[in-house]
């Protein structure tokens, strides 16, 4: 069961003395809660808005504490990239560990899609490119993420993508540079590649690419490609490519976007598009539009508040563009079991 943590008074005081103020809860994960936080540097009055992920070591299971949590901390301290959430500091007090990181003002991608529905193709392309480039950096450091999903993709103030949640991440080469296959079947079933669902040792970098394909599908359809309520059926659907683009987008999506999704959701590992090639794909390749389209528009035009802060370009004649908002989209609760090493 998810542990619900909020900082205790003595901890609040200790953190305040170091300049950290913990605010309201903004996220709940399996073994941690995420709170808003402010940091005031002793050298000046300027406040920095942060998010704080709080773990209680007394409430987490042993395999998590021995395996996943140390990896998350180690990896977080070794990575730095514009498309990966930046860690500000990590503090420990008694059984509690506080990971302070930059706050992503626009929340996570799942909430964004639930509110706004289908992401226009031009914006999906920018976000996909940013995700792929953050992941490319991670893979270049021989780190596989292994839990890529919309809840773990954060959106900054300028609507740029920041990959987050390294709770299942791991190094995928050993000290001699040999490739290590993963045997821990982690992540959410809905985003997990067939080789993960089937329980074979897998190459975690290639499985990350499948998850990226699922995220791209979700951005373009505001729905999931597979039903994950039955793992046997899920695997069969993945292997037989039993999925379709939603009818409302099928005719409007470019053939290039559809082609990329098909190559990412390729069950045959020898045929699945590599990350390098997906960055070079016609649909993804950089043209003029380098930064986030949403960021540029939002910051150059006054934002409408009539629609609960939905960016202006989603609003057409007072309606949410396309009217595709999909509040039915659920968090992917179904986890792959974690009982192997
Ligand atoms: N830096 C952040 N800025 C804004 N929201 C965040 C931030 N970090 C996490 N969140 C929110 O909290 C949720 C849980 O955080 P996450 O790191 O994914 O924890 P868990 O490992 O428990 O899933 C995220 O899905 C997101 O909604
Ligand atoms: Mg998460």
TrEMBL record:
Claim: Glycoprotein is one of the keywords in the record: no
Domain of life: Eukaryota
Binding residues annotated for ATP, in chain numbering: 53
Family, per entry: Belongs to the protein kinase superfamily.
TM region positions: none
GO biological process: cell differentiation; intracellular signal transduction; microtubule cytoskeleton organization; response to stress; spermatogenesis
Cellular component, GO, one term: cytoplasm
Species, as recorded: Henosepilachna vigintioctopunctata
Domain Protein kinase, first and last residues per copy: 20-284
Cofactor(s), by name: Mg(2+)
Classification via PANTHER family: MAP/MICROTUBULE AFFINITY-REGULATING KINASE, TESTIS-SPECIFIC SERINE_THREONINE-PROTEIN KINASE 1
Protein name: Protein kinase domain-containing protein
Molecular function per GO: ATP binding; magnesium ion binding; tau-protein kinase activity
Keywords: ATP-binding, Developmental protein, Differentiation, Kinase, Magnesium, Metal-binding, Nucleotide-binding, Phosphoprotein, Serine/threonine-protein kinase, Spermatogenesis, Transferase, Ubl conjugation
Lineage: Eukaryota, Metazoa, Ecdysozoa, Arthropoda, Hexapoda
């Amino acid at each position: 069961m998810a542990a619900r943590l909020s900082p205790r008074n003595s901890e609040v005081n200790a953190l305040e003395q170091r300049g950290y103020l913990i605010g309201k809860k903004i996220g709940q994960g399996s073994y941690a809660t995420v709170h808003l936080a402010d940091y005031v540097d002793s050298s000046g009055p300027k406040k920095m808005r942060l998010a704080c992920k709080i773990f209680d070591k007394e409430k987490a299971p042993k395999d998590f504490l021995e395996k996943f949590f140390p990896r998350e901390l180690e990896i977080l301290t070794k990575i730095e990239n514009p498309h990966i959430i930046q860690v500000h500091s990590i503090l420990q007090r008694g059984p509690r560990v506080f990971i302070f990181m930059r706050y992503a003002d626009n929340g996570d991608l799942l909430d964004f899609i639930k509110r706004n529905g289908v992401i226009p193709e031009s914006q999906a392309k920018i976000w996909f490119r940013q995700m792929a480039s953050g992941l490319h950096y991670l893979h270049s450091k021989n780190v596989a993420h292994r839990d890529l999903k919309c809840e773990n993709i954060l959106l900054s103030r300028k609507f740029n993508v920041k990959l987050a949640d390294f709770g299942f991440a791991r190094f995928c080469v050993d000290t001699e540079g040999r490739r290590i296959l993963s045997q821990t079947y982690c992540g959410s079933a809905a985003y997990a590649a067939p080789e993960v669902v089937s329980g074979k040792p897998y190459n975690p970098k290639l499985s990350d690419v499948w998850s990226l394909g699922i995220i791209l599908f979700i951005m373009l359809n505001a729905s999931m490609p597979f039903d994950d309520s039955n793992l046997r059926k899920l695997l069969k659907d993945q292997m037989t490519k039993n999925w379709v683009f939603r009818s409302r987008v099928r005719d409007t999506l470019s053939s290039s976007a559809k082609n990329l999704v098909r190559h990412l959701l390729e069950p045959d590992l020898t045929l699945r598009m590599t990350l390098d090639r997906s960055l070079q794909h016609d649909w993804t390749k950089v043209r003029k539009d380098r930064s986030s389209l949403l960021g540029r528009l939002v910051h150059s035009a006054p934002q409408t508040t009539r629609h609960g802060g939905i960016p202006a370009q989603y609003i057409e004649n007072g309606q949410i563009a396309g009217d595709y908002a999909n509040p039915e989209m659920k968090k992917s609760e179904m986890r792959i079991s974690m009982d192997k090493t």
